[in-house]
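Progress note, sequence design subtask.
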């Protein structure tokens, strides 16, 4: 089913859309069409959404129907709107332009490049001692075949205890250990998303989640996050009710890439709506340990689950180390067993030694995560100060947690800027990689997981090439980089 946006909802998204006064003031219809194009390019208005009828939008905007009719005609002429008599008008992009959501290649190991494509920190000092201690624990498992499809019981117990501390009653039988959060997502999609299933995701969202969904040939629809305020509850829940997707993927804790934190009220309403629409919620908790500012965390989405609709995935890549490929799924015990059966056909089980290392590290979580949060807080503030000083035309909201700043640029230049930055030794993840269909060119994700001096130098280099873009020659081809 095509999602429909109501007149009042679109009016709220458009905000102050009128043309600025002056000698060269453009007609209202042109300003309205330009504002809708801006929403599309920023990803705040998804593609394939049916716009309100002309009369309805005219009433919501307090303008004449003639103005809306002319704006819609302009949008059709530019390829941003497709209309069919009796069926309405829905959003498109010119010439069917699309940007693939897969095809992430690993970059060369070039230490001279400042890599801002990966939002993950270096390993903590505690890793090597934990690995040595885990090696001493290994003999207890050497007498068996070493295959544990659901994971070592001691690690599952520790992960379950973490959920209980956050207020979610959880047993070890509800935990499946995986080879990182990405494998956790892949296994859940294999089980819950048959090919061609409708799926609802945020825009922007994590690129590798889009790649996994594309691999399942899912029919992806989106709901946009506002750069400043995050989720629009009415739009999100309305999209669920209208599309009734088989599955919805959300990142409620320090959303990647925007850094927003979903409110408690919306979490509760989201679960209730998902139950009413028959939608499974996949909740990515990769960033949950990385609150950088004060205040209590909202309860996990799973707290509000009464019908086994919520599947939580998480792991140790962001809080600990990406090279330790330990992730997990928290779900109902029967669902965990079904996931384990699928997992056997993928890679049998996670490495025993890495799981034992994870047990050791999780026992020191207070110290490790405390140090990590302090480090990221300092680096976030350094990055924010550098952007403000060297690129004052850009705007952003300081994230309360996570490891990324989602910057709004001074023009639709994200991809061009990423190409230019490579020439000065900076690897970037341009905005379109976090959405569908070539949108989000006005945005750029800037992680602050690197040392402060690297972040300052990276922004200096970016600023040095920014002003050359307006007179740049035809861009050369680049090899896409891995994004995490």
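Output:
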């Amino acid at each position: 089913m095509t999602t429909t946006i109501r007149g009042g909802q679109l009016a709220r998204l458009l905000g102050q859309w009128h043309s600025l006064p002056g000698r060269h003031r453009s007609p209202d219809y042109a300003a309205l069409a330009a504002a809708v194009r801006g929403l599309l390019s920023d990803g705040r208005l998804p593609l394939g959404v049916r716009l309100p009828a002309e009369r309805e939008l005219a009433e919501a905007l307090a303008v004449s129907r003639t103005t809306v009719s002319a704006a819609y005609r302009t949008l059709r002429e530019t390829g941003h709107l497709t209309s069919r008599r009796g069926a309405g008008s829905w959003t498109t992009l010119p010439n069917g332009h699309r940007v693939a959501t897969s095809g992430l290649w690993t970059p060369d190991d070039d230490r001279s490049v400042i890599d801002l494509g990966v939002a993950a920190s270096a390993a903590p000092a505690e890793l090597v001692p934990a690995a040595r201690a885990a090696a001493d624990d290994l003999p207890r498992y050497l007498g068996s075949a070493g295959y544990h499809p659901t994971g070592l019981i001691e690690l599952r117990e520790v992960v379950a205890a973490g959920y209980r501390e956050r207020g979610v009653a959880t047993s070890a039988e509800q935990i499946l250990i995986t080879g990182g959060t990405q494998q956790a997502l892949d296994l859940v999609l294999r089980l819950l998303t048959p090919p061609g299933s409708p799926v609802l995701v945020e825009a922007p969202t994590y690129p590798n989640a889009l790649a996994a969904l594309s691999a399942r040939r899912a029919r992806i629809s989106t709901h946009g996050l506002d750069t400043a305020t995050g989720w629009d509850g009415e739009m999100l829940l309305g999209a669920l009710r209208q599309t009734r997707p088989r599955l919805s993927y959300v990142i409620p804790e320090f959303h990647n890439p925007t850094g927003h934190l979903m409110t408690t009220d919306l979490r509760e309403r989201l679960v209730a709506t998902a139950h009413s629409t028959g939608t499974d919620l996949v909740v990515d908790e990769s960033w949950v340990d990385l609150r950088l500012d004060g205040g209590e965390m909202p309860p996990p989405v799973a707290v509000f689950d009464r019908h086994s609709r919520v599947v939580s995935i998480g792991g140790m890549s962001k809080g600990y180390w990406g090279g330790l490929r330990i992730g997990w799924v928290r779900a109902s015990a029967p669902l965990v067993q079904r996931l384990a059966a699928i997992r056997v056909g993928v890679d049998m089980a996670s490495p025993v030694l890495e799981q034992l290392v994870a047990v050791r590290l999780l026992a020191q979580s207070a110290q490790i995560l405390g140090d990590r949060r302090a480090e990221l807080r300092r680096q976030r503030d350094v990055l924010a100060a550098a952007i403000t000083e060297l690129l004052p035309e850009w705007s952003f909201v300081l994230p309360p947690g996570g490891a990324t700043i989602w910057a709004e640029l001074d023009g639709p230049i994200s991809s061009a800027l990423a190409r230019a930055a490579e020439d000065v030794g900076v690897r970037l993840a341009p905005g379109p990689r976090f959405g569908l269909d070539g949108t989000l060119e006005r945005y750029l994700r800037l992680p602050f997981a690197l040392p402060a001096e690297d972040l300052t130098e990276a922004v200096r280099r970016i600023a040095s090439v920014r002003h050359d873009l307006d007179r740049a020659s035809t861009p050369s081809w680049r090899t896409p980089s891995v994004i995490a």
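The longest strand covers residues 198-203. Work on this subtask will continue into the next period as scheduled.
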